[in-house]
Structure to design on (291 residues):
């Protein structure tokens, strides 16, 4: 060290020398600490955490055009809260037609049930007033069909009574002809010996014999008609007893077909699903459209 440097050091204040030695000691301690100490690295940045097991996909079963989104990205939603609405314009017409068809079938079912049970047509109190004309139409049809059934049964009853009257007349005629035939036969037997004695002419005897034969043929013809008349009576009795039964059975069958053809009201379900609710509580993420 030169004399000039020694002179400058001697002139340096004591506080400056202490600060210099302190800085050198701090640097030495920092080097030693960095050599043995473990440091945690911390980095900051913007990101999005999406837990795959907790992610819920919300989609509408029917699909369509989104008319309204009710929440924003990042909003906290509750379970069942409607997130978005689907435009139901294309479902409105089909929905209304299907609803009319639904109540039309319901009114028809009420009529068919009354016809199959043989009861009066009763209007349910909870039937919508807007569709009462369907009930009135079915009530009119119920009355017309009931009148048709009564007319058909009345005609069958008259036909049955006519056949029964024919049977009574045939049996009465058999008795009458049988009695006349017996008298003619007795008369013929009496005249037979008189013809041989010449008391009665043979022509008169032949005429009487012809009458006996004609009456015998009439009697046989009437007796043969008895089974035919009795068969007709049985047929009309069966038709009378089965007429109402067939009417009830036919109504019951139509009722079953009506229930089987009851529409599933798919458009009604679609209209109810125009809103997409949240399946659970959570944060709303971004929406994705799918064609």
């Amino acid at each position: 060290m030169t004399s000039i440097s020694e002179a400058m050091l001697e002139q340096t204040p004591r506080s400056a020398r202490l600060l210099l030695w302190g800085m050198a000691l701090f640097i030495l301690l920092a080097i030693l600490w960095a050599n043995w100490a473990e440091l945690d690295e911390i980095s900051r940045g913007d990101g999005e955490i999406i837990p795959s097991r907790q992610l819920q996909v919300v989609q509408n079963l029917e699909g369509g055009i989104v008319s309204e989104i009710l929440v924003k990205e990042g909003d906290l939603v509750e379970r069942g809260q409607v997130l978005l609405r689907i435009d139901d314009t294309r479902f409105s017409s089909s929905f209304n037609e299907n609803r009319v068809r639904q109540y039309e079938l319901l009114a028809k079912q009420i009529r068919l049930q009354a016809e199959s049970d043989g009861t009066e047509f009763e209007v349910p109190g909870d039937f919508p007033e807007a569709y009462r004309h369907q009930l009135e139409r079915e009530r009119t049809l119920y009355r017309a069909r009931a009148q048709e059934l009564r007319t058909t049964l009345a005609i069958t009853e008259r036909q049955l009574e006519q056949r029964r009257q024919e049977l009574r007349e045939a049996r009465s005629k058999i008795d009458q002809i049988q009695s006349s035939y017996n008298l003619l036969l007795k008369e013929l037997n009496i005249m037979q010996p008189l013809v041989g004695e010449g008391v009665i002419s043979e022509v008169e005897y032949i005429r009487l014999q012809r009458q006996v034969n004609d009456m015998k043929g009439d009697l046989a013809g009437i007796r043969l008609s008895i089974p035919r008349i009795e068969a007709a009576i049985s047929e009309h009795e069966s038709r009378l007893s089965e007429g109402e039964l067939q009417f009830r059975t036919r109504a019951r069958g139509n009722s079953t077909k009506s229930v089987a053809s009851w529409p599933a009201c798919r458009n009604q379900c679609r209209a109810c699903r125009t809103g997409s609710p949240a399946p659970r509580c959570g944060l709303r993420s971004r929406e994705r459209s799918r064609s």
